[in-house]
Amino acid sequence: MKKTKTLWTMTLMLGAALLLAACGSGSGSSSTGSKTVANKDKPVVWFNRQPSNSTTGKLDMAALSFNKDTYYVGFDANQGAKVQGEMIKSYIEKNIATIDRNGDGTIGYVLAIGDVGHNDSIARTRGVRTALGTAVSKGGAVNSAPAGMNSDGKSKVVKDGSLTVNGKTYKIRELASQEMKNNSGATWDAATAGNTIGTWASSLGKQIDVVASNNDGMGMAMFNSWSKENKVPTFGYDANSDAVAAIAEGYGGTVSQHADVQAYLTLRVLRNALDGAKKGTGIETKDSVGNMLAKDTFVYNEKQRSYYAMNVAVTADNYKDFTESTKVYEGASHQLSKSKSPEKKVWLDIYNSSDNFLGSTYQPLLKKYAKLLNLNVEFIGGDGQTESNITNRLGNPSEYDAFAINMVKTDNGSSYTSILKQ
């Protein structure tokens, strides 16, 4: 009896030892095939919000080079900002005979600013002001701060611009601009924008000839609550499906930041790192099933460790080509082999579960690419206000093989990397 009990005990101990060996004994690592990978060495991609100083815009290279498999995926913010600004200017020029609603010789516009500390918002504000001639230099760059109310043109943040069309010179004035932040602190807030346009309209009336917005979420809120009824062209950014469809109803235009390319790159760089594939596989060069991006759809900045998708203006001339906002990029739509690229688990967060672009366009694309790339992605939705609302749900990084991070504030890269270093 004693011998039998001893044998049973040894069997249990051996089973436990085998189980520990299979799972990996380190608290800060996970097992990838036969190789155990520490959390600090797992692939990381920052997306949509580039790690940077929210005041100066200086890139946070410590976050961008956290390990050898860390990259950023976004879009060329400056190129996109220029596209938006020039799109608005071109619209004014083409419609100069009717756009000055009160006939005072001044083309007045209002501007909805997303997050004053976000690089993309800063770039878009600068792009509009530069194109329309209302930009004021501050510290060697265009001042991107909100002007507040400026119906009298006395603001120091912006200046009156001018535009000559058909021999006649018109004054261009930024009548009002503000950060669209709600009472809870969430920025890029559509509801706030919808309420604000009503306030602006009650004070400025027919002085408002154009509405500009840092994104389509805020732009559509203003369009639906005021601009559409008053036939005032409204311009946004992101090419969300509702905004593209609204162009047929008078929405002035938007900018496609190639969300299909961005979403693909977000997961593709992780897939390549997990497979030990060459960095540009399926991006710059065809993978084994033929996936590859066209050269004019993105750029890679090696010094910044960043992939940037290119931007395209979406107007009444071409909006029908952009009606399917969640359609995968045709050249990267082929299923990877599970034998060569076995399923891996990815932790991915979206800073605000209510964000229109990320929720209605980016996330659906990510889900489609996850399936094509054999990635099991766990999506985490934040509240758009506090980093801890997201980081608190990264309690056991050892469960995951890779991470895709969309911060609330661009300064907070260390909030995530410090967890992975534990």
Given helix and strand content, the structural type is alpha/beta
User: Tell me, what's the shape?
Assistant: elongated
Task: Describe the largest sheet.
Answer: 7 strands, mixed
Oligomer: single chain
Which percent bin holds the helix content? 25-40%
How many discrete structural domains? 2
Strand order of the largest sheet: 14-15-4-3-19-17-18
Low-confidence sequence ranges: 1-27
Rg estimate, integer Å: 25 Å
Number of helices: 12
What is the terminal separation in angstroms?
47 Å
List keywords for this structure.
alpha/beta; signal; 12 helices; seven-stranded mixed sheet; Rossmann fold; MglB
Account of the protein in words:
By secondary structure, this protein is α/β, with parallel strands linked by helices. The protein folds into two domains: 212 residues, no CATH class; 178 residues, Response regulator (Rossmann fold). It is built from twelve helices and 19 strands. The strands form five sheets. A seven-stranded mixed beta sheet has the order 14-15-4-3-19-17-18, covered by helices on one side. Strands 5, 8, 9, 10, 11 and 12 form a six-stranded mixed beta sheet that branches. Strand 6 and strand 7 form a beta hairpin. The N terminus is likely disordered.
Short recap of the structure:
Residues 43-277 form the Periplasmic binding protein domain. The chain has 422 residues and is α/β, with parallel strands linked by helices.
